[in-house]
Amino acid sequence: MEPFTPRQNAVLECALQLLVAGGERALTTAGLARAANCSKESLYKWFGDRDGLLAAMITYQASKVRTPGPRESMPTLEDFSRSLAVFAEDLMGVLAGEVSLALNRLAIGQADRDGARLGALVREHGRLPIETRARALLELGRRHGYLKFSDTHEAYETLYGLIVRDSHVRMLLGEPPVGTSDDLPRRARLAIAQFFRLHGHGAQDID
Amino acid sequence: MEPFTPRQNAVLECALQLLVAGGERALTTAGLARAANCSKESLYKWFGDRDGLLAAMITYQASKVRTPGPRESMPTLEDFSRSLAVFAEDLMGVLAGEVSLALNRLAIGQADRDGARLGALVREHGRLPIETRARALLELGRRHGYLKFSDTHEAYETLYGLIVRDSHVRMLLGEPPVGTSDDLPRRARLAIAQFFRLHGHGAQDID
DNA sequence: TCGGAACCGTACCGTACGGTACATGAGATT
DNA sequence: AATCTCATGTACCGTACGGTACGGTTCCGA
């Protein structure tokens, strides 16, 4: 997407802070202008209108996350399994992040306007990178003979379901984040173990 | 929860229609009074304030759904498996329902106010009945020797994740509902098959 | 028949917010 | 130095909405 100037990035960062701190109602044009020491006129010049600002916040936040490409050398099954577990923990960490939750809440709350334009943006910028990383990992595992599946997307969705379950929606609904972070690795390992039971090398395909 | 009068139920039904049709912005006190042929004063007398109205909508909607208790006679494995598939399809049907999506969007959009009171209501009234039904089904299957698990809650969450994956959040974000309903049974059967791979009789426990 | 309670419809109020206009000032360019 | 560009800050406007007040009507019990 088109980049923003450093000044605009600073304003967007400030907007994200406001959104995280107080929800959508705290993100007013006047309040953002005051908090970011800019003028409302500049906001409208840069982002068009309020919806443009929200969209810019999403793309800006997405531009901050980088998907760590897996290093290709991954000889042992243990390493690969560990990579999957790391992915699972990263995924849960992202979904439980304050900014991610705030932006998802924002997009979901606006899903009835403009044909869910914000929702489409979140799906595109927020989920696609995750899926890309997961697909690369899965296909790497398949190439090395550690995994067995026919449809990469199906396998990815299964992995996602086993990892996330319904915790994302629960967090979106305001439930305090899951266990005190010592629970997270256990859940991640459990999910990966279950995934191997379904798509590990010895498993028979279900499709 | 305390019941409402028939008149109040009719007003709440009308409010749900407004919410489904136009999102939260379409649900104004004046608009509801006009649509339901009642006065704003009555709305405030009955429900206190706007938040009370939203909470009443959630409890009212929850009061409409009944969890069909499984008939205890379930001799064959095929019957039990079919019951699980029916549960899966029912679950997806509920989550994809217009009213459910609208109320979840509403609660998620307000998750930053009042300590996510609406979100807590949705979690309590919307998800607890589902889990209750699923737990009964799972434990029935375990009693009959068809399933093997130690923690019912864990097994339920696994089942939920395999069935729903991330489709709920995607729908909340405005993605049109999944395949043209002929895809749903296939997905349900696949999820159940995967669940049996993890917790079927012959499976070794992972925990 | 009277009186009160509940309710409808409408008018009203205060406020908050999105969006626009304008005056001022700082930096760069010619 | 003159000027152009860009941004700030403030003031302003229209509107929409939550919440309240009030007059009028219906219904029910005494």
From TrEMBL, chains A, B:
InterPro entries: Homeodomain-like_sf (IPR009057), HTH-type_TetR-like_transc_reg (IPR050109), HTH_TetR (IPR001647), TetR_C_Proteobacteria (IPR039536). Keywords: DNA-binding. This is TetR family transcriptional regulator. It comes from the Bacteria. Residues 28-47 bind DNA. Residues 5-65 form the HTH tetR-type domain. GO terms for molecular function: DNA-binding transcription factor activity; transcription cis-regulatory region binding. It comes from Pleomorphomonas diazotrophica. It holds the Pfam family TetR_N. PANTHER family: HTH-TYPE TRANSCRIPTIONAL DUAL REGULATOR CECR (PTHR30055:SF146), HTH-TYPE TRANSCRIPTIONAL REGULATOR RUTR (PTHR30055).
